[in-house]
Amino acid sequence: MDDRTGIRVLEVSGAPRDRGRQYGEGASDLIARALDYYREALTRQTGLSWTDVTNSVSQWLPISENLAPRLVDEMRGIAEGAGVSFNEILTLNVRGEFVYNHQASARHVTPVIESDERDAVDGCTSFFLTGAASGTGHTLVGQNWDWRTRTAETTVVLRIVQDPLPTVIMQLEAGQIGRHGANSAGVALNANGLGGSFGNEIGLPQTLIRRLILDQQDIASALKTLVKTKPHIASNALLAHRSGYGIDVETTPDGIDWIYPDASGIIAHTNHFQASVPPQLAGHYRPVSADSLLRLPRVREGLGKVAGARDQADSYELVRAAMSDHLGYPEGVCTHPNPKADPLKQWSTILSSCVDLTNGEYRIADGFPCEAEYELLPWNLYDGPDGTGTL
After folding, report:
1. What is the structure's pLDDT at 115?
2. I want to staple 328 with a disulfide (CB 3.0 to 4.6 A). Which of 56, 158, 281, 332 is the partner?
């Protein structure tokens, strides 16, 4: 536990299986809590037994072993360290893909099965600020991570030392191997779900794609990984580099589209297609989260004020203010749980991040940014593998 943020922070190193075991041991209680939640949520949502759920995710194992064998080995280590089955760890890493497939099957079987596309994707608000837009000339990236409220108690910040690959810092659900973060090569990735129906052909799960991107030594390789890897579900990826380069890529199993920063140096993205609506969705597209249409202009307006920051501390506070917007409460940029919702499906902002790619400072607001300040993590992105060193 980090005294500053309150969130569990872990550092792992060594070969994939070894660092997986270290991760599993260090987060075993959080992994158990995550499995308890998804066991209850997924069995109720699908009507399947937990055994059926964990067996069904094996359909993603062949492609994962083919495209990311070391990450599968790392997952096996997590399972060993946490004392749980490999299929349970795989379930935590493909929970979005699994729910998407179940919903697609339900639509074809009977119209009376309840299906909410939002159940399959994280709802997030991501941002990129560079040059004058940050008020300091630094490049800032981050996001509000919105997901099921009960998963907030399973989040962890992980530092992975994996020489010769870059050292990676990520915030994720315990047991997962990839989500949002940045690396010692100055590459950052923030992501948010998009929804949409694209068929059932098996593609690589998002947790593995995101980790593969963050394992790259340079921005060109990271972008190539993002563009060339076929995902199973649609997702938005905001990719950035310490040089000030940023691009937002809307990825689907069938293709991609992209957005560059506006003239002021800002990118903002929520949970609907912004570059273009994919052709197969044209004419009947509805955003996975209706409030995404509300959040986007609000966060853009708030982020536009960061250019007036007096100094670095003021820059962070203005970002925090933008990410704390409550128009539409309890939904909004900063989302709070709806007390009328089923506790298993309550939705809220579980964490907010703000990373300075220029100086390597990584900050986390553990919970709602309207209540929690951005606190500095114990490592700098550009520290050496042993946690020492500077830019």
Report:
1. 44
2. 332
Opening angle at CA 49, ends 44 and 55, nearest 5 = 125
Q: Which of 350, 364, 363, 390 is nearest to 173 (CA)?
A: 350
Record the tokens describing residue 130, joined without a space. 């560079």
First to last CA, the chain: 26
User: CA 35 to CA 136: how far, in whole Å?
Assistant: 42
- Give the other-Cβ count within 10 Å of 113's Cβ: 14
Query: For the chain, which residues make up each domain, given as ranges?
Result: 15-110, 118-380
Decide: 292 and 250 in contact? Cβ < 8 Å. no
Beta bridge partners of 316: none
d(CA 305, CA 292): 21
Cα(153)–Cα(137) distance, rounded to whole angstroms? Answer: 35
pLDDT in tens, 45-71: 999 999 999 999 999 999 999 999 999
Give the separation between CA 31 and CA 158, rounded to whole angstroms.
14
Q: Which residue has the tokens 């079987």?
A: 109
Instruction: For the domain covering 15-110, report its CATH number.
Output: 1.10.10.2120
User: What is the rounded CA–CA span in Å between residue 222 and residue 204?
Assistant: 16
3-state helix, strand, coil in the chain (%, to 5): 40, 25, 35
Provide the CATH topology of domain 118-380: Penicillin V Acylase; Chain A (3.60.60)
Identify the CA nearest to 37 among candidates 192, 177, 175: 175
Q: Please answer whether residues 307 and 314 qualify as being in contact, where contact means their C-beta atoms are separated by less than 8 angstroms.
A: no
DSSP letter for 45, please: H
CA distance 181 to 169: 6
Measuring CA to CA, which residue among 19, 21, 23, 20 is closest to residue 10?
A: 23
How many CA atoms lie within 13 Å of 201's alpha carbon, on the beta-carbon side?
Answer: 7
